[in-house]
Amino acid sequence: MTTITILPLQGIDIPGVGAINLGQSRSAIEKILGKPGNHSDDSRSFYDDYECRIDFDKSGMVEFIEFIYGPVPEKTQLSLYGIDPFRVGADNLLALLSEKNQGPVDDSEAEYCYGFVNISVGVWREFTEKEVQESIAEMKESGEYEDNRELLDEDLEKARNFWTIGIGTPGYYTIS
Hints:
A 7-stranded antiparallel β-sheet has the order 4-5-6-11-10-9-8, with helices on one face. A 4-stranded mixed β-sheet has the order 3-2-1-7. Helix 3 runs antiparallel to helix 4. By secondary structure, the protein is an alpha+beta fold. Strand 1 and strand 2 form a beta hairpin. The protein contains 4 helices and 11 strands.
């Protein structure tokens, strides 16, 4: 596994590979990470080996880096403020990010998506632990639980954490 350190308002560091900085040029990124993978275009590059997407502004400079293979990445282990954001639990991550942010949070899609304005960090997940537990209760009542148990258990485990985490340039996240 490749360890990647996320540095809000700065970029990321990949030991033995190099640093990717917010505001860095596309060509500089390609010198460090190589050619991007499939589905890349003028506005974004995908790097499957690092399980991330890098977005570029109109000038071709890095404005956003997002790790998109959570909550169970296969090739990377992330470190943000000394913890793995895909393993610490959603509530613990929100508490840590709120503490570090010390200011406004875009919680307009609360429980699924948060944007921490002062540190330009965003997190997202498709569903919550509570929603999966409600589905389990409904399926138990209808007698469908055992047939779906494995999938529901996987969903319950995934719902305990956020699925993506991204960092942007200062001002990337705002509150409307």
